Amino acid sequence: MNLSENDIKEYGLHISDSDAKYYKEHLHELLEEEKNQLKEEKTNKQVSNLEEVSPNPKKKDPKDKLYNIIKKTAENYTTNPEKLAEFFEFGSRFYNYSVRNSMLIYNQNPNATYIQSFDAWKKEDCYVKKGQHGLKVLVPVKATYLKIGDEFIPLRQASKEQTALYKQGKIKGEERLHFKVGTVFDISQTTFPKERYPELFFMGYPSEQHKNVIKGLTEFAKEKLDCSVITTDLQSISLRGRYYPGENHIQLNAFLEDTEKLSTLSHELGHALIHHMPNMKKTPSQIEFEADAVSIMIQAHCGIEITESRKEHLAQNYKVLLNTLEQNPNAKKDVMQQSQEIFSSVYSTLKKNIDAMQECIQRHLPEERTLEETETQNISLCR
Predict the structure, then answer these.
(1) Helix H or strand E segment including 183
(2) Residue 286 main-chain phi, psi, to 5 deg
């Protein structure tokens, strides 16, 4: 992908709108292109000495480590459809970044949401928190190379005499684009105020109704599943929450407002109900789809409107799940039979737990509003 002038500004990460559209439509092809380009650049580096010469030949070039990350990431995506699906989701937040840097950011922090350089954050009147480690990216830099004999050397490594001759026009020079290692920071690593997050990322909105249901589900998790629910700083604003099957506890992002927090808690509760065995033999798409299904059914039972993000997450995981089932050579049943069994498992799980769940929730509902009042909105769990 060609680099525009904007690539040079603020670590040269952004590409044009037309390139962004092309990236979203042809990401798989671009990943293959990146692998081929890396091979070509390695050859060019050996043949034409385009990269700057290290003063210490034994010292490893820090760029080499990043190039290896990109190469391994591209290879992983082309052989693992599940990982490619994850990168598509990640790319929806970073489609205006180069493919290379998207790969690097994803590898270092798959939950990154909005990144900038240290100076760029400073311009936003906020600072990087103490002790935070930045994400390494490749920064395009223009440099002048002088032709000395049959070789080209960087202008900054030229002698005083060579520099003087260059300025006099007696030595030829040319501009070349090379890369250096730069550092950027995710918004979660900064003091960017929470009240301004909606400017960049939707975190939900406050709601007493959602808050009461959250309290009830939290009690249910502790009393019936011995699963603690902790609200904490997850060092990200895109990572909503997570479930740890080994320790059997749920973490929720402290930045979430009530609506998104309930959607996340019910999703992670789905994991706790179905996926509490650490070594279950299920694909990531099936695990996430089942948790999404439980989340939607719990909220629907409580008369809560389902968030768009939860609907989109379920739809995305269902598509990947169907594709995985279709490609399974060892499957003894067709795709519809397999998917129906997954649906039945979700229904059965909720049916076993919904009464206890409802009892815990009702403790926190105002007296004038009970779950019976929303009975007409509830799903049927007995069919």
Answers:
(1) strand 173-186
(2) -65, -45
